[in-house]
Amino acid sequence: MKKPEIDLSECSICEICVDLCPVVFQMNDAGYVEVNSLAEYPVMEIDEVIKNCRGNCISWKESE
After folding, report:
1. Three-state SS sequence of 8-51
2. By C-alpha distance, which of 54, 63, 64 is closest to 20?
């Protein structure tokens, strides 16, 4: 299964991912974006987030 991953060192915290796909991405209490743990991730929506990410910091990762 693929899971979205955020490289926080490249993230500008623009919140585009949160706006486009709030089911998957959220702001945590520390003010950083995090990926919610889901059984399945909406591929089309996340691909759209990846295309629109200003920091180019979101990608797919194969999970074990």
Report:
1. CCCCCCCCHHHHHCCCCEEECCCCCEEECCCCCCCHHHHHHHHH
2. 54
C-alpha to C-alpha distance for 2 and 11, rounded to whole angstroms: 20
Provide the residue-wise pLDDT of the chain in tens; the chain has 64 residues: 899 999 999 999 999 999 999 999 999 999 999 999 999 999 999 999 999 999 999 999 997 6
Distance of CA 11 to the CA centre of its chain: 10
Residue tagged 């180019």 (tokens): 56
CB 18 within 8 A of CB 25: yes
